[in-house]
Task: structure prediction
Amino acid sequence: MKDRKLKYFEIRVEGIVQGVGFRPFIFRLAKKSGLKGFVRNDTEGVLVGISCNKEQVENFIKKIYSDSPPLSLIKNISFKEFSHRSFKDFKVVKSELTLKKDTFIPPDTALCENCRSELFDMDNRRFHYPFTTCTHCGPRFSIITDIPYDREKTAMSPFLLCKDCRTEYEDPFNRRFHTEPTSCPVCGPKYFLKNKKGEIISDKIDEIISKTIEEIKKGSIIAIKGVGGFHLSGDAKSDEVVKKLRKRKKRPFKPFAVMVESKAIAEKIFQLSEKESSLLESKERPIVILKDKTRIMSEDIAPGLTFTGVMLPYSPFQMLLFNKMKKDTILIMTSGNISDEPIIFKEESLFDELGDIADLFITSNRDIIQQSDDSVMFIIKDTPVFIRRSRGFVPVPFFSKKTDKRFFAAGADLKNSFALAKEDKIFLSQYIGDLESPLTEAVFMRSVSHFKKIFDIEPEIYVSDMHPGYFSSKIADRLGKDKKSFKIQHHHAHIASVLEEHSEESHVIGVAFDGTGYGLDGNIWGGEFFVADKFEFKRVGHFSYFKLPGGEAAIKEVWRIGASLMFEAYGKDYNLKNNERNFVLELLKNSINSPLCCSVGRLFDGISSILGISDIISAEAEAAQLLEESALLAKIKRVFPVNIKKTDDKYILNTTDFVLGVTNLINEGLGRSDVSLAFHLSLVRSSVELIEKIREESGINKVALSGGVFQNRLLLSDFIEELEKARFEILLPKNVPFNDGCIALGQIAIAKELIK
Result:
C-alpha cells in the first residue's frame, strides 16, 4: 500500500538546469499538481522543496523527466525525505551558494520561433529589437561570468530591467520568467554602426540595417558583432569582394563560410539531404559542409573545391539583416580575425586587429564574456561529424567514470581545445585555435581561468602531449609546476577519445591517420595501427617511414615531400625538373635536416605534389583537400597493389608502393582525377587488409578511427564501407572532431586510467 502520509521532500536536479527555464517549469508543474513549496537555483543545480506524500513525489519526478524544457539536460534527480513542513503556496525563491559548486552551463542557441515572430511583429514592443531572447533560446555560455546563473553574473548586469520587462521576469507563467538575458529597446543593450576610427555613425537599428545593406551592395566588408565574436561579412557572389577579403585577411586558400536566409534558399544553391537540412536548422546552427550545385558564388569562396560551409541566421541581428535583403542573398560570414589567429571578441582590440580588413564595424554595448567560433560539421552516411566543436555545443559536459581527482588536459597545438575534469564529468573547451600565435595563447589562458572558476575545478593532475616542442605541453608544465603530470602519446589520445565517448573498456584496433604526432621512437607518426584501450597501446602496424627534407619547411612546401617519395621510389638517379629545387636531393642523400615520418597526412601532401595538384600550400590540409576534390571527379575506378610486410612484430604498409602505383597509372595515360581516386581506394583497401591481419592475430573485431585525415569524406566513406564488408564493429567520434580537437578528451581518459 502506498504511503499517503504528508512529508517534506527535497528534490535535487543536476545537469543543464539553469538558464533553460527550469524554475518556471517546476513552478507550473507544482501548481498543476496542487503542490506547495519552493524551487531555487544554487551552485549544485536546482533544488525543489515540496510538501506531499511518497506517491506524489514519485509522480512529480516522473513528470520532471518527461516534460523538462527543451534546452535542459538532466543528469540526475535524487530526493531526501524529512518530517513534514507546511507551505502556504509554491514560490520561486532567491538563488543560494552551497558548499558544492557543480552546476552545468547551457550553450548558446539560435533564436526560437516565438522570439522570431515577435522580432517581426510591428505591434510587439520588441519589434526589430536585436537582443530579443527568452527562456528557450539565445546567449548563455558567451555571457556568463559565474554561477549560480543569475542576471548579476552575466554580461547583462549593467542593464536594469524596465517596468514591463520586470513584470515579465517575475511572472512564472511568462516564458521570460527569470530569463537572465531578457531586455527590450527601453532597458537593454544597443547596436552601433561605427567607422574605422570607432566613431558612431548610427545607434538606430533600422538605420544600421539599411546602411549595412547599402554598403554590402557597394562592395564593402563589414565586421559584425555576433554571439561569440566578430564576423567579417560581404557579398559572396562578388569576385572583387571575396578577393579583397582574402588579400586583407591573408587567407589565400582556406574556404570562407557563407550564410543564407533560409533552408529554402540553401536547397536552391546546395545539395541538401534530409540529415543536412535538419542539422542546418537545428538549435545549434552549426556551419554545415554542403556541395555547391549552382556555382553562383564567387569561385574564390572555396577555391578549387565544390564543398562550402553554409549556415543559417541564428541571432536576431542576422535575421533582421537577411529580412531586408534580396531572398537569394549569400553573405560571407567568416571569423573576424587575421588568418590562424583567434576570433576577435573584445572591442578594445577590434579596430587595431580588424581596422585594415573591415570598412565598417557593427558593435554593441553588451560584452562577450567567452569567445566562441561557429561549430563546423558535415554528414557522412547519415551521421553528423564534427570538424570544429564550439558555439552551440560547448560547454555541454562528457560523462565519464567517476574519479576523486581533478584533471587539466592541454590538448594539442593545432585545432586546440583543452579540458578540465572532476568526478564523472569532463568539460571540453570551445575551439581555441593554433597555439603558435601569442594571441591564441592569451585566449587559451583566459579561457582556462574562466573554466576553472565556473566549474570549480582546481586541477591536481596536468596532462599534455609527449612532444617536447609543443606549446600546449610547455603551458601545462608551467601551470602544473610541482603537480603530478602525465605526457601522453598523441595517437593514443586520438584513439582513447573515441573509446571514452563510447564508454568502451576493452581493447580495440585503433587506426589513427593524421599529419603529425611525436612517436615513441622519436620519429613523426601519423599512419598508425594500434591494439589499444584507454590504459595502454601497442603499435602493431604503420606506414613505412619516408623523409621530410627541410623538416617543418616540407609541411608548407609540399613539393619537398613529393620529391622525397619519388627519390625513395626511384633511387639516386631521380632528379627534379626544376633545377633550383635539386638541393633537396642533397638533403635526402645525406639525411640532413630530414626527419623520418610515416604520416598519412604528409603522404597525401606528397601524392598531391606528384600529381601536379599542389606544390606550396597556405593552409593546413590544402594539398589533401585538392587531392580529394580531384578524386571526386574520377570516372574510372582502379586499385593498385600495396605490399604489407611484417618486421619486428609490426605490419608495415609500404609507402613506396603508393608512389609506384600512382606513377605507373600516370605512365599508362590515366587521367589525374582517376589516379587520385585510385590512390584513395588503394590506401583504404590496403589499410583494411592490414586491419584484417591484426584481427586474425588478436581476435579483436572492434575498430576505432580517429585523426584529421578522416575528415576526407571520400576516404572516410570508403573506409566505413570496406570495414562493414569485412564485418568489423566500427567506433567513430560522436561529439568531438576526428582532428586534434579531440586530443584533450583522450588525454583525460588515459590519465584517469593511469592514476589508478
